[in-house]
Write a structure and sequence with these properties.
single chain, 392 residues, mainly alpha, Cytochrome p450-Terp, domain 2, 2 domains, three-stranded antiparallel β-sheet, 17 helices, binds s-citryldethia Coenzyme A
């Protein structure tokens, strides 16, 4: 490859050197700091995994206890943030609310002491602590209710589900939710992480870094796909309709949500774990009508697009898990963001360690030496097209 070769979407182009996570897309392997995702899902917790990602090694018992304590202590939101949220339209998307709230934190903690470890730690703790409270608060406020205060006797995931549903969650649901956060915490240089890194490279504050990443995650080609998967399953409506739905997608060249990945050419290992978690929930709380449609769709896509490496990604089964926990569909991507904050922060910290501002180049395709045309003599683009047609 020559240096000037253009790769749409920067496919295959290394944007950084990183020791945070690793993906083998042919074998379906994901590791955080060298530890396999299956082991972390089984043995770790989201906060322990976040510590691992951000500080590079598993915490000792004392380090973990200190980290958990600090996060518990910082869960509450300033009343001015809550007041700001009251002005948001109920019809607004929760990802937009979250992006605005994350950015607003910068108003309160504006010091940019990026070379001070205490500042870095405080920013990490604040963001991990407050983002779930923001998501839950917006959910209650848009229903016209007061937000529920965090409960210090509940751990990270149980407390989020409590703030969201106004009741203590079932222990299995809380445990499974925590595993979901671990699975979504980090994934190399995906679009939102890249966005976080570019923002970080300007040495702006960490709240701007997270706000820019939240905005990037929201799109349907990225984290927003988890919401669209449920809408797609609803549209398909029954197992019998799967093949005809797929026919239409292939005919119209439209994307099947929750399938395909830039790196994985086999089933995303997170999707395998999420499917298993969904089944555990169905065993305890009863099945979900859409699960059978999802399984039939996975099989049909594998039969027809498997040769292209199109298999379920992380967003395919996560929504079925969240639905069983009573989480509304438009909160699926904010839940993804709650988890991914830890990966974004890990990359923010790594970026600061050896920073150089991101400033790639481009291949210019425009003209040169174009004349400046007087405004009276200009034609609109539509006129210009008509004129060009008449000349031809
Ligand atoms: C996430 O990068 C990460 O790590 C992201 C993520 C993370 O943890 O951060 O894993 C989370 O974002 C998961 C992806 C969620 N998005 C979706 O589920 C949306 C549907 N999927 C796609 O649009 C697509 O697969 C992407 C966006 C995920 C990847 O896009 P690429 O790598 O640019 O691939 P492409 O669109 O250029 O497709 C390559 C080929 C094309 O066929 P050809 O033209 O070569 O014949 O694969 C086909 C595509 O048509 N294809 C699909 C498809 N995805 C790819 N065909 C049908 N349905 C799909 N979903």
């Amino acid at each position: 490859m020559t240096l000037c070769e253009y790769k749409p979407g920067l496919e295959g182009i290394p944007a950084t050197q990183s020791s945070i996570s690793f993906v083998d897309g042919k074998q379906g392997i994901l590791e955080y700091r060298g530890i396999n995702i299956e082991a972390l899902a089984k043995q770790s917790t989201f906060l322990e995994t976040s510590y691992l990602l951000i500080w590079g090694s598993l915490p000792t018992r004392q380090e973990l206890a200190d980290f958990e304590y600090e996060i518990r202590y910082h869960r509450r939101l300033k009343y001015r943030i809550r007041d700001m949220m009251k002005c948001f339209p109920e019809s607004g998307h929760p990802m937009d609310a979250l992006q605005a709230c994350a950015a607003a934190l910068g108003l309160f903690y504006s010091r940019r002491a990026l070379d001070d470890p205490a500042y870095i730690r405080a920013a990490v703790v604040r963001l991990l602590a407050k983002i779930p409270t923001m998501v839950a608060a917006f959910q209650l406020m848009r229903k016209g209710n007061d937000p529920v205060q965090p409960r210090d006797d509940l751990d990270y995931s149980a407390n989020f589900l409590y703030m969201l549903n106004e009741r203590e969650p079932d222990p299995l649901a809380a445990q499974i939710f925590d595993i979901c956060l671990t699975l979504h915490a980090e994934h190399t240089i995906n679009a939102s992480t890249f966005s976080a890194m570019v923002t970080a490279s300007t040495l702006t504050d960490p709240y701007a870094v997270i706000a820019s990443a939240v905005g990037t995650l929201a799109g349907p080609l990225h984290g927003g796909a988890n919401e669209e998967v449920i809408e797609m399953l609803e549209e398909i409506g029954s197992v019998e309709n799967v093949e005809s739905y797929l026919d239409r997608c292939l005919e119209n060249k439209s994307k099947i949500m929750g399938f395909g990945h830039r790196v994985y050419k086999v089933k995303d290992p997170r999707a395998t774990i999420l499917q298993d978690l969904a089944e555990q929930l169905f065993d305890k709380f009863g099945g979900d009508y859409y699960y059978d449609i999802a399984v039939a769709l996975e099989k049909a896509v594998a039969d027809r697009l498997g040769h292209k490496g199109i298999y379920p990604n992380v967003d395919f089964y996560s929504g079925l898990v969240y639905r069983k926990m009573g989480i509304p569909t438009d909160l699926f991507t904010p839940v993804f963001a709650i988890a991914r904050v830890s990966g974004w922060l890990a990359h923010w910290k790594e970026q600061l360690g050896e920073n150089r501002i991101f400033r790639p180049t481009q291949i210019y395709t425009g003209s040169h030496d174009a004349p400046y045309i007087d405004i009276e003599k200009r034609h609109s683009a539509a006129d210009a097209e008509i004129l060009a047609g008449m000349i031809h």
